[in-house]
TrEMBL record:
Residues 255-312 form the HTH luxR-type domain. The lineage of its organism: Bacteria, Bacillati, Actinomycetota, Actinomycetes, Micrococcales. It comes from Microbacterium horticulturae. InterPro entries: Sig_transdc_resp-reg_C-effctor (IPR016032), TrmB-like (IPR051797), Tscrpt_reg_LuxR_C (IPR000792), WH-like_DNA-bd_sf (IPR036388), WH_DNA-bd_sf (IPR036390). This is Transcriptional regulator TrmB. Gene3D superfamilies: Winged helix-like DNA-binding domain superfamily/Winged helix DNA-binding domain. Coiled coil: none annotated. PANTHER family: HTH-TYPE TRANSCRIPTIONAL REGULATOR TRMBL2. SUPFAM superfamilies: C-terminal effector domain of the bipartite response regulators, Winged helix' DNA-binding domain.
Amino acid sequence: MLDAIGLDGDHVTLYRRLLEAPSAAFDELARLAALDEGVVRRLVEDLEDAGLVARQGSAPDRVVASPPSLALRPLLLESERRLAAAHEALVHFSELYRHGAEQRAAPDVVDVVVGPDAVRQRLAQLQASALERVDVFVLSEVALMASAENVEEGRALERGVRYRVIIESEVAQRPGFIDDAHATIEAGEEIRVLPTLPTRLFLVDDAIALLPMYSHGPDRVSGALLVHPSGLLDLVIAIFGEYWATARPLLGSDEPSVSGADRDLLSLLVLGMTDSAAASQLGISVRTVQRRVAELAERAGVLSRFQLGAEAVRRGWV
């Protein structure tokens, strides 16, 4: 809430408790905020520096909250002033960059990002700057950035950025992937599947693309190529569009006659997963998978798993 002025959740909790009480000693604050007294003393010092609390005149060992309208307004106005100045700088620097980009020669269309840490940093920056859409190729090998590290994806989804992700079919066999996919799809991400993809890819707002210098092998994250607006970027955009048009949605359709659990199962079977692998992904037994496949085959009026897959696609179950 107050992170814009350098305060974290513990600071906010402590300030709330003080706002609710006329005054409080350190031990009382520690009990009210469920924090160690030593931590409370440090937090109070930070709040004092920010002007949010003060020592009580008649009892210096007690602290009182400063009125929010007096304490916070100057801090927020200063933050707004800094943000406005930063925005002006952004506009100015962007204009300089645009002018420089217009003069780019052919070799300058691509920048080289060297080292795995630099690649991860640039990926985070690209997603943080995304305005409308991020398009991604995900290969079955180790990703450019692990999902747990990619906090910017969640932030981008929260602010309404659309993600279109194409994965190789083997990616769906990773432990826990289907559960994670449900969460990201619910957040607004679209996931489609193809048997194989040519390389990893991050494409942001059709304005800039990042590709690894090596699409496969042990050097896959040693560096990356940053592609600026050009004929090459147009080609990357067109290639993603072609792959997206031919890829199949990961978790199928929303046809009411097929339950969500059955759609998930059918999607995994169409990907070529064994009963054992599908059972592991869905957290059910192999026998349950086999029973549900038999029931779906009977409902579809087919005799084999291959026919079930084809009929499921025809009916829009997946």
